[in-house]
Specification:
It is a single chain. The chain has about 160 residues and is mostly helical. The longest helix has 28 residues. The termini are far apart.
Length: about 160
Amino acid sequence: MDMQNALGLSGGQAELVYNAFSFAVAALGISFVYFLVSRNRVAPAYRSAVTMSAMICGIAAYHYWRIFGNYTGGTWNEGYRYADWLLTVPLLVAELVVVAGLAKDAARKVTPRLVAAALLMVATGYPGETAAAGSSARLVWGIISSIFMLYVLYELFA
């Protein structure tokens, strides 16, 4: 069974997914390069944020390339999305702290909490994603993951 049939896609829908993956890989790859070459063009206070953006785009480009390869090969692996998120989501919240311009002492306190909560949010989301559809495990893990997400939002906006 090919991926098109496994996902219940028509020919046009399968082509749209294929093109979207191709576009995403290209956009993330060129963004990675752009952030790397632009790093020294921004104020020193924001260079670490630009470096984190490059890392995020590079990591995501790699994982989307792997997902794209699986899709064209007729298989699907949820693990690539979660591996991507385990790396990029903590980087994103750390980058938010940098661009928020918090004092160094405040940033040192909040960043580890945000990174830990982001990791736990993604890690507890995976068992819910892979649980059988309609099972109570899916709901329980979804609630646990959402609690960590709400904590991240609380730290960012409270």
